Amino acid sequence: MAQPAYVQGTLDTLLSADGSVDPAALSLADTTFVVLDLETTGGAADGAGITEIGAVKVRGGEELGVFATLVNPGERLPPFITVLTGITEAMLAPAPPIETVLPSLLEFLRGSVLVAHNAPYDVGFLKAACARHGYTWPNPRVLDTAAVARRALTRDEVPNRKLGTLAQFFHATVQPTHRALDDARATVDVLHGLIERLGSFRVHTVGDAIEFAKAVTPTQRRQRHLADGLPHVPGVYVFRAGDGRALYVGKSKDIATRVRSYFTASEKRARISEMLGAATRVEALECAHPLEAEVRELRLIAAHSPPYNRRSKYPERVVWLKLTAEAYPRLSVVRTLADDGAAYLGPFSSRKTAELAAAGVYDAVPLRQCSHKLSVRTPTPACALAELGRCPAPCEHKITPEAYEATAALPFRSALDGDPSQVVDALMDRIDTLSGKCRYEEAAVLRSRLIALLRATVRMQRLTAMTRLAEIVAARRDGIGGWEIVVVRHGRLAAAATSPPREHPRPTLEAVRLTAETVLPGRGPVPAASAEETERILAWLELADTRLVETSGDWVSPVRGAARFTSLLNRAEAAASGKDSSVRSSVTDRSDDARSLRL
């Protein structure tokens, strides 16, 4: 199996998949280190060029073993290397080649943390040699003493971070001589000196030391105590300010590991750095399983609008496209659903998107675009759209309310909860016409309107199919022998639990069902929760290994509903995003496959 490239590990990898403690979580005093140094011909790390290996195994300040050997590099030795190290070609001629040395060296490294000065250089040569000669690199934890020294020592203490300078600073018993074993022994003393220094930074484990060596900001280092004592369970975490305000809300399958990652070098977001400086504590809310954590995160963000969360903060700011209930209906963008007999499409995340979908409707059917309330008795003057043939002029009574309903309003109503093909086909025909005349920019505008309209209808029909059900009970294996259980009512997560391993899940299911939240029905496709919450639940229910236990009714979608245009929508979105730049091939293809989408 191919091994991953050398990367200094981060704190979010300190737990194994089974939850066991990684060696990097051990204290520095209890860790076995192999301190290594290489001498090379000075070339690139291409699998050859190593001339000498020196390694010392230590734990708790005690030397456990030594590995030292010259290596025949299989190439000429540059004269300047001989001057620098004192190693000659005559010394290397009888030495074993690297492929002979590697098995013993890899065995010496097994189960240890590898330490080197400027570690990427040494590790790069060893990995290249393993790859060239067919050996598996064990991918040990790697600690770079040069990187640690850059963070732990100031310029006032040492002018640079060279091995010789550090060895002199820490009064090493062996001074580096550009010979592998001497340099390795010098690095051992430097390592021990750095470990003593790290205690003042509250760095006590290998994982902490590896992370300390990275470019962690002073704020991250100062505030990392906020992650202490958090549980290794699924749930939601809340960073709070001194006055109790929620600054940031997040979720994770492992709260402790995720929160600790905010104090590592991998976290580079400026707003998060600012948030960490203002935070005084972190609250953890344990959840039954990851789906409950996702839902509770959404609800907490919506409730508190934390200043450092960017997404899902204002679910109430959705808008709807309303077809008014009057003799000559028109489209209107509104913020709330009303029990007024009107037809609604949505929710849309922004007014701009709703207006884009409305423009698609206007391109497909002859709905009036004026905002006047028209009388069936008294005519009013027509606008320019009537003169251009873009409106049937109901204002002048040139069309009856019945004919207007059939030709203009009914296709839109059908698209909401039934077959949107009349609207889709009309838009596709116009796109085809424009593309045939090489008017691709105009065709792309129509494509964006088609995307907005199709996405909204597909989404609403999916949501409505689920939220009309009074209750759905479902379960899914949790990976350790138990079951993740959810009770969903009208699209809202009403209860969640996890049954214990090796126990029948039915008692847990019945108990959680009895204590589930009471959810009342309402208007629209998302009557009891935000659209984002219901969609998260839908995604979980649609996983291949999720089992539906009970439903209060039939969970169905229209036979000729919007979902059958999903393939067309995906192709249009791919074209719009630049993955497929051809409007004609992605949206207007009239091949048998494209035609089948409309049948």
From TrEMBL:
Record Pfam families: GIY-YIG, RNase_T
CDD domains recorded: DEDDh, GIY-YIG_UvrC_Cho
Keywords of this entry: Exonuclease, Hydrolase, Nuclease
Region annotation Disordered: where it falls in the sequence: 574-599
Comp. bias intervals (Basic and acidic residues): 587-599
Membrane spanning stretches: none
Residue stretches making up the GIY-YIG domain: 232-310
Signal peptide: none
GO molecular function: exonuclease activity
PANTHER family: UVRABC SYSTEM PROTEIN C, UVRC/OXIDOREDUCTASE
Name of this chain's protein: DEDD exonuclease domain-containing protein
Organism: Paractinoplanes hotanensis
